[in-house]
Design goal:
312 residues, mainly alpha, Plasminogen Kringle 4, two-stranded antiparallel ribbon, two-stranded antiparallel sheet
């Protein structure tokens, strides 16, 4: 077990033999081999790293340092020709049969591969003008920077004779976002009935609003398929559109305001009642004789004037 899972990208790993601090430059016993110039994988690791960490073997397979949960070499393809380690590195099978497929030599049997549009790939095919033949569904004979592709079995499915391949183990690098920052336009579908999820899953667009690797030039542009309201670039988050989510937050201010109004009303009632009482009983309280506050006569609080003759 390792101290840091971020270092190993796992919680365990095979131990390096004692006294081994470096790896000599790798070369095949017969014929020699040269690594793909300047190659690094999608994570920035080069051929020396693959050899030193025992991630691959010279037959194009996976060595003891490679963890199954990482997926395949194809998930980390990189470099100018978008090569996987077994295609770019002599230590990993470059130039051998094991270096033909980006998947490398695995114990699993690849039954079939599909394109980003979920159309079945031909197992064996060859691009015109390129001598290298693909015998494992998906290849990248022309060094396409967008990755592996294939000729398809059914033209009507892909609406083209070729398409970019779906990763061999999709979703490996995807991480669910617990707090979405964008919301698709509710109920949106394009003129052919495809929704935002379809555009995202089949990589028809990018978050920058451009066409994705799953989109074919001969289809035209997004506006050719827009609905009555908007195209995908306006309605779908995956295509650079959508809108910010409205997060409902319970307001504490409203509760405080209601309580404050209630308390203010009660105090106003008490103060108003007190003022009314003193207003109506002012004279009685002011002129009541000391010790005679209990008297409630009709003359209490009044000044009696003696009768005079003039009043008769």
């Amino acid at each position: 077990m390792v101290e840091s899972s971020t270092c190993e990208d796992s919680d365990w790993g095979y131990c390096k033999p004692e006294g081994v601090n470096s790896v000599a430059p790798w070369e095949f016993d017969a014929g020699g081999c040269t690594d793909s110039p300047g190659w690094k994988d999608g994570d920035g690791d080069d051929c020396h790293d693959y050899r030193e960490n025992n991630w691959c073997n010279s037959q194009g397979g996976y060595n003891t340092g490679w963890h199954e949960e990482w997926g395949t070499f194809a998930n980390f393809a990189g470099g100018a020709r978008h090569e996987s380690a077994n295609q770019a590195c002599c230590a990993c099978g470059r130039g051998t049969a094991g270096g033909e497929s980006t998947l490398g030599v695995t114990a699993a049997t690849v039954v079939a591969r599909v394109t980003r549009n979920l159309c079945r790939c031909l197992k064996t095919w060859e691009e015109e003008g390129v001598s290298k033949r693909c015998t494992d569904y998906c290849c990248n004979p022309d060094g396409d920077p967008d990755g592996e592709w294939c000729f398809v079995e059914d033209y009507s499915c892909e609406e083209s004779d070729w398409g970019y391949c779906m990763p061999a183990n999709p979703g490996l690098d995807d991480e669910d976002d617990a707090s979405p920052t964008c919301v698709d336009q509710s109920g949106w579908k394009d003129s052919e009935g495809d929704d935002c999820d379809t555009y995202e899953e089949q990589l028809w667009c990018t978050k920058d609003g451009d066409v994705g690797v799953g989109w074919h030039e001969e289809w035209g542009n997004f506006f050719d398929f827009k609905s009555d309201t908007a195209p995908a670039t306006v309605a779908c988050c995956a295509c650079g559109g959508g809108s910010a989510p409205v997060k409902e937050v319970q307001s504490k201010t409203s509760k405080i305001l209601i309580v404050s109004i209630g308390v203010s009303g009660f105090l106003a009632f008490v103060l108003g009642g007190t003022a009314w009482y003193y207003r109506t009983n002012y004279n009685k309280i002011l002129y009541a004789a000391p010790g005679q506050e209990h008297v409630r006569g009709s003359t209490l609080g009044k000044t009696r004037v003696a009768d005079t003759m003039d009043d008769c």
